[in-house]
């Protein structure tokens, strides 16, 4: 059993016996792996947002909350694979880490046979990674809109000139595979676009910026039309 299958099966096992716990040693014997492997798997699930906790004591172990787990989701294997491909195609999007955890939650909530079929289909799709691929956007930048704070950044422009700035994040714009953080720049006293892969360092301050409303008219676009994200 590969790790992805085991993670899904771990959740299903804990959900089946909830609210009773399963010990790490019991789970290790059940899945024929070491206790250390089970502990790493449980930690990965917790980091993905699965509500698993440990009950102490001789009869304790790991538990999952039935109330906080999703009911079976009626996505077909093809629909789940299409979502996985779309999320993988995000490249260096600011929300890629959140998208990955959301995808894992979706798979865990699918019916068992559908989830297995989706994972088999996904294993047939590959992406060719180029040397010039941008790295992931740091979590502090990805969370800049959800938890507004003034950011202190070190920014390097296209000419390699570096400046230190304090900015107030306002939004994101994607263009040509690159992502730009739109922010009020205190150094320039105006709205500026910062390409995320040119932000060399970022410090989150405790200061909450004043609320500013960002519209398409505030962003100077020489060509093209801004298209908002809709859910």
CATH architectural type of the largest domain: Roll
Query: How many separate helices?
Result: 7
- CATH fold title of the largest domain: SH3 type barrels
Shape from CA axes?
A: elongated
Structural class estimated from helices and strands: alpha+beta
Please provide the ordered H/E string of secondary-structure elements.
Answer: HHHEEHHHHEEEEE
Computed CA radius of gyration, to the nearest angstrom: 22 Å
How many DSSP E strands? Answer: 7
Q: Numbering strands along the chain, what is their spatial order in the largest sheet?
A: 6-5-4-3-7
Poorly predicted ranges: none
Total separate domains: 3
> How far apart lie the N and C ends?
36 Å
Percent helix range: 25-40%
Question: How would a textbook summarize the main sheet?
Answer: 5 strands, antiparallel
Percent of residues in β-strands: 15-25%
Mean pLDDT: 79
CATH class of the largest domain: Mainly Beta
Tell me about this structure:
With 231 residues, this protein is of the alpha+beta class. It has three domains: 3-64, Orthogonal Bundle (Arc Repressor Mutant, subunit A), CATH 1.10.10; 77-122, no CATH class; 139-218, SH3 type barrels (Roll), CATH 2.30.30. 33% of the residues lie in helices and 21% in strands. It contains seven helices and seven strands; from the N terminus they run αααββααααβββββ. It has helices at 3-17, 24-31, 35-47, 77-88, 96-109, 112-122, 139-142; strands spanning 52-55, 61-64, 151-156, 162-175, 178-185, 190-195, 199-204. The strands form two sheets. A five-stranded antiparallel beta sheet has the order 6-5-4-3-7, with no helix packed on it. Strands 1-2 form a two-stranded antiparallel ribbon. A hairpin with a 4-residue loop joins β5 (178-185) and β6 (190-195). α2 crosses α3, α4 runs antiparallel to α5 (96-109) and α4 crosses α6.
């Amino acid at each position: 059993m590969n790790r992805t299958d085991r993670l899904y099966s771990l959740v299903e096992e804990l959900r089946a016996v909830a609210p009773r716990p399963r010990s790490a040693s019991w789970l290790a014997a059940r899945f024929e792996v070491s206790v250390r492997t089970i502990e790493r798997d449980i930690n990965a699930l917790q980091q993905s947002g699965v509500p698993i906790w440990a009950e102490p004591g001789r009869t304790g172990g790991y538990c999952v909350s039935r109330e906080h787990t999703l009911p079976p989701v009626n996505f077909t294997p093809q629909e789940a694979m299409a979502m996985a491909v779309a999320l993988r195609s995000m490249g260096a999007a600011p929300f890629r880490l959140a998208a990955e955890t959301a995808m894992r939650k979706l798979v865990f909530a699918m019916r068992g046979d559908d989830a297995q079929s989706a994972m088999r289909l996904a294993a047939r799709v590959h992406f060719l990674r180029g040397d010039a691929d941008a790295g992931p956007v740091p979590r502090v930048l990805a969370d800049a809109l959800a938890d507004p704070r003034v950011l202190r950044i070190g920014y390097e422009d296209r000419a390699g000139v570096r400046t230190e700035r304090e900015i107030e994040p306002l939004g994101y714009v994607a263009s040509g595979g690159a992502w730009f953080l739109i922010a009020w720049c205190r150094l320039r006293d105006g709205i500026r676009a910062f390409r995320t892969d040119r932000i060399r360092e970022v410090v989150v301050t405790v200061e909450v910026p004043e609320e500013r409303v960002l519209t398409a008219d505030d962003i100077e676009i020489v060509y093209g039309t801004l298209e908002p994200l809709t859910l």
